[in-house]
Description:
By secondary structure, this protein is of the alpha/beta class. It has helices at residues 18-30, 44-47, 66-78, 92-100, 114-122, 148-157, 198-211, 245-250, 261-266, 272-279, 308-315, 319-336, 339-364, and strands spanning 2-6, 35-41, 58-63, 82-86, 107-111, 140-143, 162-164, 185-190, 217-221, 234-238, 252-257, 284-286, 303-304. The strands form 2 sheets. Strands 3-2-1-4-5-6-7 form a 7-stranded parallel sheet, with helices on both faces. The protein has a 6-stranded parallel sheet with strand order 10-9-8-11-12-13, sandwiched between helices.
Amino acid sequence: xxxxxxxxxxxxxxxxxxxxxxxxxxxxxxxxxxxxxxxxxxxxxxxxxxxxxxxxxxxxxxxxxxxxxxxxxxxxxxxxxxxxxxxxxxxxxxxxxxxxxxxxxxxxxxxxxxxxxxxxxxxxxxxxxxxxxxxxxxxxxxxxxxxxxxxxxxxxxxxxxxxxxxxxxxxxxxxxxxxxxxxxxxxxxxxxxxxxxxxxxxxxxxxxxxxxxxxxxxxxxxxxxxxxxxxxxxxxxxxxxxxxxxxxxxxxxxxxxxxxxxxxxxxxxxxxxxxxxxxxxxxxxxxxxxxxxxxxxxxxxxxxxxxxxxxxxxxxxxxxxxxxxxxxxxxxxxxxxxxxxxxxxxxxxxxxxxxxxxxxxxxxxxx
Length: 367
């Protein structure tokens, strides 16, 4: 099957979590004989931090404007087995119109930012990637978030069919490697700066750093402001590209996962970073949210922190205990949260959608 995707980015991992997810999915789909054409608007901030152009299983179509690419996009969609629009695609509304008016057998929307979508709706704000028609025109809506979010996609945005498609990890990229002295840390945190994560980052990273001045703490990521409250024992690595993620994680005794506020409030929305660290065998300490135990077993495969004291206690665990937790998490990630597994789940969701639609058409015709 040929899949055509209109997305945010696959070529640059700078400041977003979409690119690495799509790279893994494309590899997983390619191993099953499928191919993806990914349409990405060529914007300066991603062009300046582009870390992947040749992606196995994917043909990347960079374009300058929608008017410029629309004829080629229409041809590609009309020849595809599945056409998909994703959240935060800068031309999502135009792409949606094209996809819904096309001959594609399967028309799909994939919301990789479902909690943000509903937070904006609740605040009365515009959702720039969802038009006035909602999502009811698509055959199926996939969601990075499970649980109650799936019901809300039906209720509030008119989705006819929904299915979760969670984050994942590509074991070809994230796996145990030798540590890098420049990334050495007792506790690390890898993530783009986000204001709605700052309160939890203060409690679970900066407060423990201030309480343990003799230990080394490391933050890696982009968009950190000049007035960020650094401490003398907190080091910074600006924008760690995916090729260096494994070395980043494997250089830490323990790494922190902090969930964005909207994601934590809705629950059932694991960050891709959670799976990446686990696949590297690095023990993870994380904030708590509903549904976490569906992905990793607390106390066995992951450490839960509700405040600074929990992080400080985790830092006092022996190397042997931390190693046991990291090994258990890696086993779980490879078995249930790999990009290959998500590719299988994507294909299964598409097959079930086709079957349900065929059954509905037969029933309508009295067959």
